[in-house]
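Following up on my earlier thread - several people asked me to post the actual chain instead of describing it. Fair enough. Here it is, all 183 residues.
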Amino acid sequence: MNLRKYIISLRRFRVFHRLLGTSLALLLVISAITGVFLALKKNIDLIQPPTQKGQSKDLADWLPLHQLKTLSQKALSDAYPDLANNPVGRMDVRPDKGIVKILFEEGYWEVQLDGKTGAVLNIAKRHSDWIEALHDGSIISDSFKLVSMNFLGWGLLCLIFTGLWLWYGPKLLRKWKKKGAVK
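Reply from S.P.:
Thanks for posting it. Predicted structure:
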């Protein structure tokens, strides 16, 4: 075996590993920090408003969804007049809690209503939604999300394999040197 060949291989891997690591560093830091916040979102009310409880878990007792949607839009525009035309993005129906969370498209707003009475239980910002968009890159665009997450995933795999070689390669070379198998 040629010792010079393996030393050059290790040096190239070291350079590649360093360049890849530094180019991934910003994405990794953002992903790690936002990942921690997302893991804690149910425990910190500022990140995501706590889920309230309604009067009835029986969907037969509930107001129709279109009426709950209208009530939530009115509640949001009454509380924040500048958000009067904010369209509904999605409705999160929680029969086990007796509520509906209405999430608005602009500004990450959420209104929680009692499913039976339509009473407003909470109006708050969902910071977890923009943190998630930052976490996966969709805050910039869906195309950026696709490219950056693939780059991050493949880059991490390359860092793992080059890191393993940088750790194991020198051990292997020392072993070969002791046996006299390398020139």
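The radius of gyration is 26 Å. That should answer part of your original question.
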